[in-house]
Amino acid sequence: MSSYSSSQVAEPKANPCFNYQAPIPNNTGRRDGYLILPNFDTSTGPVNQKLAIIENSECPELLKVAGHTSKVEDGAACCHEMFFNQPYYVASGPEDKNPVFIAQYFGENDVKNVTSAYEAMKEAREIAHRKSADPNSQDDISEFEQRMVGNSKKKILKRRAYVQGFTITQQQDAICAAPVNAAIIEHAEFTGKLNQLVAIAAGRLLANCAPKEVLDRLAKQAESAIPVTFGHEDNKFFSTVQYNYSGVEIASLEMSLGNFGALHIDGNDDSAMWTVLLVLSNIPESYWPGRTFISSLRIYATMGPMTALVFKAVHPHISLGPIPMGESKRLRLVAVCYPKKPVIRETPALLRRSTPKVLRTIKGVRSSLPEAHPVAIAAFGTLRNQMEFLARLEAHDKFDGNKKTETNWVSTENIGSTFVHLDPLASTVAKPLEEFNKWAKKTNNLPTIKRNYGKLPYLCPNCELRFSSKSRVKIHHNLAHMYTYEWQMPQPSVDPAHQERDSEFDEEGEEQLAEEADLEGEEYSEEEGPVAKKRKRESVKRS
């Protein structure tokens, strides 16, 4: 009887096995902190790659709750709040005596203890939120953000992430300055000052937590690689800064930041270096500030104003915005300083040799790069010696990259439910190249793009006008924005007028869209417009 009863007793629910274990106190002989061990053989990596990706994509709903959570709640959700001012390391196993420094969270008091960083952040926050004296400026737009947008007061702010410094082209064949406009260049001293303060703060905090021997080695690497960086001549570790603005009323940061507000991986970052998040938010103290979650390591930090997080952004991560508790026009602002790997490693070899027209209009700027770069990027706050770039044109290395990934939000009761059916020992690999090319051909052609996004899938990056093809956007840019904005390749986005259809297009619809695509690619004279071309096609069909 007793044995029968015991068999009916439900066994306690086992915690799901994620890619990494919970942090434990570090006893490897390095400085105090916490150690994170993998749940897979590091010599081979996860055997079931599909399972590993799904595990990284699962995020607990608990992270969206306002207020601090208990250790019991965190444990049930298989996530762990980072301790203030404690380094976190990842080791290959229990016997690893040289774990890799992966992250550290600075609370406001910890930032205050790094005096130069705190003073720089405090001044940067004041500049970044300073309201414009222009009576026509919007209530929730600062003077700095208005200059990032440009002089147009009518531009719709759908994406409020602004990049300064250097980046890599979409083709990953050239390093170039981040997009600039006439307003940025006109107020180079103003924007340069903010970038300088942010670079100082990020550099000081990184130096306070990262292993000195690693930073020394990376600094020596910079002497030969000569990376173009932003903000300050002493900055050797950050190529780019991104200012992420968002209001407290939005439901998700993805609405204002695009992919940067979703769970994503900064695969173009140099994996040997770190990203620094500086929280320059100006939200009321009564608001819950939100969290940043590193999903692969299952650790998170509460990102209140004047806090900072140093971490390797090649790990998947997501930031959650503040939760409103009343009406407010205050803004969340995070300055993200990061190291683009091609910029850090390959500047001399990949530095772009052409100058956009927006830069050629400035007196004294030569029409070829890299000579023009140091002058044009005064707005980015850096004034390096031009000859440094010209003296070293042989450096080169490899680069790689990924971005947004899928997010699966689950309740505490369902932690692990997205991958419980998968066997970690069942081998899976990435899609073969042939499969990927087949998929890309289906999803990247113009008829498919129009089916998914609407008849006008391309939004001009600099105004609210939409167009049917990239070439149309380019023509519009040359007519309307050539002397105020640098050209940016547009990406498809949903046309507000587009009504999604539940059923697939029939063959006739596909044929019609394909015909439209052919028309887009054809050139026609001024006397003979696209309507005339279409009539010609119809007459040929009838004959």
Q: Any idea what the radius of gyration is? A: 26 Å
Q: Strand sequence of the main sheet, in spatial order?
A: 1-2-5-6-13-10-15-9-7-8
* Low-pLDDT residue spans: 1-14, 364-379, 381-404, 500-543
Largest sheet: 10 strands, mixed
Number of helices: 19
Biased composition (Acidic residues): 503-529
GO molecular function: zinc ion binding
Protein name: C2H2-type domain-containing protein
Region (Disordered): 492-543
Question: In summary, what is this structure?
Answer:
The protein has helices at residues 2-8, 49-57, 71-76, 108-113, 115-129, 143-149, 182-186, 188-209, 212-225, 254-257, 341-350, 357-360, 373-376, 386-391, 433-444, 446-453, 470-480, 507-521, 530-542, and strands at 24-25, 34-36, 58-60, 80-81, 87-90, 100-106, 161-168, 175-177, 240-247, 275-279, 291-294, 299-302, 308-311, 317-319, 331-338, 408-410, 458-459, 466-467. The protein has 19 helices and 18 strands.
